[in-house]
Design a protein that fits this description.
heterodimer; A: mainly alpha; elongated; B: mainly alpha; 0% strand; flat; disordered N terminus
């Protein structure tokens, strides 16, 4: 973590210094893109959400008071953007996340992601994938997942159990 | 959840535990960073530059949406009542796209009629960074165009022919504006205002239109409405 550097860059960016904000982008793009890619299992959407996150961060820099690390704030912003976009789609399609059928295998690029687990995660149903990524990889608690996804804590736990069951099968087959 | 047995299910609890351990270990080893396949900064910079010109549409209805204070929504998205309920969404989006394209054409026409600004040494030297982003933006637009072409080639989702027509017309208008500005840039290569306009306005407009078009073509109305609203 390069929080001290981030602090100075954020201060400059708040004054409208776009070069400072670009430096923040260079520092954090990999982390933000990683979570967007795992949550969406769609490279094109992941890139769009990553861009959205940085544009939104620029817009909202004034509300960032530095109580947490900039990276953490940005990361939460990105997760919220992905979840909000998905929620909007889900509500239009009147599909309950818990009842979704597994997606078609996602087209996550092979380069740099050679692990079987990455592919297996990408192939999980959307709700189970989101809970697994947030809980097992990103360290969210079930209460936090419930809040960000708008689901009950018990549903989050059930989705995690479902995800782990499906991943176990995938990895052992 | 299903109770079906699967060949991969472990009969022995010890096997199950071993697989769980493998799973946890693999999860721990996953990289925390995955760089995007391309540089996303030019697109971000273009959107920021464009939106900073009209800050009133940036505030998004006053939702602070700070990730710092928890998990509150950070996206703002479509304001309630943004789309009149009595009209089809595609019609509203189409009108917004047409308005955006019209504004672009008027701006280009006025700019061409008045002629580019006379560049002094200071402004000429500031054109460099903008010029550097043009190729990246053009590549990004090309990628987005390919995505839209593939979408339309696949039948354009369930979008109506009227929607497709509106999209095609507006994209053609934007492309004409870009071609004219490119031509002006080739005649005045040291004028930073042309390159800046091209990067921050036209390519940004084209990117927004293409992405809105792709979403419309895949029937993703709410996001398309939101994007088109930002064109106003």
């Amino acid at each position: 973590m390069i929080t001290d550097t981030d602090h100075a860059l954020v201060a400059r960016a708040k004054d409208g210094d776009l070069a400072a904000f670009e430096a923040l982008y260079r520092s954090h793009a990999g982390r933000i893109h990683a979570v967007c890619l795992r949550l969406t299992a769609n490279p094109e959407e992941a890139e769009e959400r990553t861009q959205d996150a940085f544009v939104r961060a620029w817009e909202k820099l004034g509300s960032f008071e530095g109580r947490s690390a900039f990276g953490s704030w940005l990361y939460r912003l990105a997760v919220n953007l992905v979840i909000d976009a998905r929620r909007a789609r889900a509500s239009r399609r009147r599909v309950e996340v818990i009842d979704e059928e597994p997606d078609a295998p996602a087209s996550i690029p092979e380069a740099g992601l050679g692990l079987d687990l990455e592919r297996a995660i990408a192939g999980l149903p959307e709700g189970a994938r989101t809970v697994y990524v947030l809980h097992e990889i990103e360290g969210y608690r079930h209460e936090e997942i419930g809040e960000v996804m708008g689901i009950a804590t018990g549903t989050s736990k059930a989705q995690l159990h479902r995800a782990r069951t499906l991943l176990r099968r995938s990895l052992s087959s | 959840m299903t109770n079906e047995r699967h060949p991969g299910d472990a009969d022995d609890p010890r096997d199950d535990a071993a697989i769980e351990a493998r799973l946890d270990e693999a999860a721990r080893k996953l990289p925390r960073e995955i760089p995007p396949g391309r540089d996303l900064w030019p697109g971000i910079a273009a959107r920021i530059a464009r939106e900073s010109l009209t800050p009133d549409r940036v505030s998004g209805g006053g939702n602070p949406a700070s990730g710092e204070s928890g998990h509150g929504s950070a996206s703002g998205d479509v304001a309630p009542g943004d789309t009149p309920a009595s009209r089809p969404r595609w019609a509203v989006v189409g009108e917004r796209l047409a308005l955006a394209a019209t504004i672009t054409v008027i701006a280009v026409a006025g700019w061409v009629a008045l002629g580019p600004s006379t560049s002094g040494p200071d402004t000429a030297s500031s054109a460099g960074p903008v010029l550097e982003t043009l190729d990246a933006l053009e590549a990004e637009c090309a990628l987005a165009r390919d995505t839209l072409r593939r979408t339309l080639a696949d039948g354009g989702g369930t979008a109506s022919p009227e929607v497709i027509d509106v999209l095609q017309v507006n994209l053609a208008i934007i492309q004409t504006a870009i071609d004219e500005t490119r031509d002006a840039l080739s005649k005045n290569p040291h004028d930073p205002s042309i390159a800046t306009y091209l990067a921050h306005e036209l390519y940004a407009d084209e990117l927004a239109l293409i992405r809105t078009s792709t979403r419309l073509a895949t029937n993703d109305f709410a996001e398309a409405s939101s994007d088109a609203g930002q064109e106003e």
